[in-house]
Write a structure and sequence with these properties.
- It is a single chain.
- The relative contact order is 0.13.
- It is globular, with a radius of gyration of 18 Å.
- Helix 2 (106-116) crosses helix 9 and helix 4 (162-174) packs parallel to helix 6.
- The chain is α/β, with parallel strands linked by helices and 310 residues long.
- Helix content is 37%, strand content 17%.
- It has one domain (4-54, 66-308): Rossmann fold (3-Layer(aba) Sandwich), CATH 3.40.50.1820.
Length: 310
């Protein structure tokens, strides 16, 4: 990488600007959220007790005092009445890999559990630059291991934005020991499978020279397909996919591209682009997470459930 100092300084400026913008948008939304009834909620369960916690990859910029930037390794569990035993949605929040927390997706996750009859685990994981991609994936698989110990063996992954990237790569990794080995996920020894994956306004392409991909693999220890998950899906296969986006989503073109690429790979995939029909209901980035009770948010939840029931 030529002159990495400049590239990392630019990335860090972009990271801080992104976090500030997200805080300005998410804080009033969080304050106004009303959660549905009918779901049993267990909060802040530690899933990595006694597991290694390496130092941040970039210590000087790892903490900005952001209340919505959580690198705690814990999770919530939302259990509906008469939940299906052994089956669970793994919900992974977004935030460009550098921002966010499970609370941002809590309302969506509770509605998903309520409507599907399937338990939902909503997880935190270490954010960049507290770790790199391998570290974040290690956290996610610690969470999966914890859930396996609780008797869950059938997983469905769902996530938004960067969480869409994580839900897709996690689905591939969960079903392929070879992929886990290549990506350095070696401490996982459970008989578990991923039956479906449903990225919401998700990401699948990153650059190692730009934010946020510049943080992925600073030590160059991972395979190149981490920057292109369609390539990874072509190599290892992938469970059925539902891609949802909106006509004002900044990730719209990337979702259209992924849909076409998965079709070419003969991977079962369904696609939904929500259209803005009223000025007060724009189909912006992660609209279904922000507004799970809008008709378009309900359709996203319904498609996610249908994908899990294939």
């Amino acid at each position: 990488m030529s002159n990495p100092g400049i590239l990392f300084r630019i990335a860090d400026m972009n990271r801080k600007a992104f976090i500030k913008n997200c805080i300005d948008c998410d804080t009033p939304r969080m304050d106004a959220t009303v959660f549905p009834e009918g779901v049993d909620v267990e909060s802040d369960i530690s899933y990595a007790e006694g597991k290694p916690l390496p130092a941040p990859i970039m210590p000087d910029s790892a903490s900005d005092g952001c209340a919505l930037c959580c690198s705690d390794r814990n999770l919530d569990i939302y259990t509906p009445k008469d939940a299906k035993p052994g089956e669970i949605f793994l919900l992974i929040h977004g935030g460009a890999f550098v921002y966010g927390c499970k609370e941002l997706d809590k309302e969506f996750g509770m509605y998903l559990a309520l409507k599907s009859g399937i338990t939902v685990a909503n997880i935190n994981y270490r954010l960049f630059p507290r770790t790199d991609l391998q570290g974040a994936l290690t956290d996610i698989f610690y969470a999966i291991s914890y859930l396996c110990e609780k008797g869950y063996t059938t997983f469905h992954t769902v996530g938004d934005s960067a969480g869409g990237y994580f839900c897709l790569i996690t689905a591939i990794l969960l079903n392929s020991e070879e992929a886990r080995r290549e990506c350095g996920i070696i401490d996982f020894n459970y008989e578990a499978t991923c039956k479906s994956t449903s990225p919401i306004c998700g990401d699948h392409l990153e650059s190692p020279r730009q934010f946020a991909g510049i943080y992925f693999d600073i030590d160059k220890k991972m395979p190149s397909y981490i920057y292109d998950l369609a390539e990874m899906a072509g190599k290892f296969g992938c469970p059925p996919v539902v891609l949802t986006t909106g006509d004002q989503d900044m990730m719209l073109k990337q979702n259209e591209l992924l849909y076409k690429r998965l079709q070419d790979l003969k991977i079962p995939v369904e696609y939904y682009c929500a259209e803005s029909t009223e000025e007060d209901r724009p189909m912006h980035h992660v609209y279904a997470i922000v507004h799970p009770t809008w008709p378009e948010g309900i359709k996203t939840i319904d498609m996610t459930i249908e994908n899990a029931r294939r």
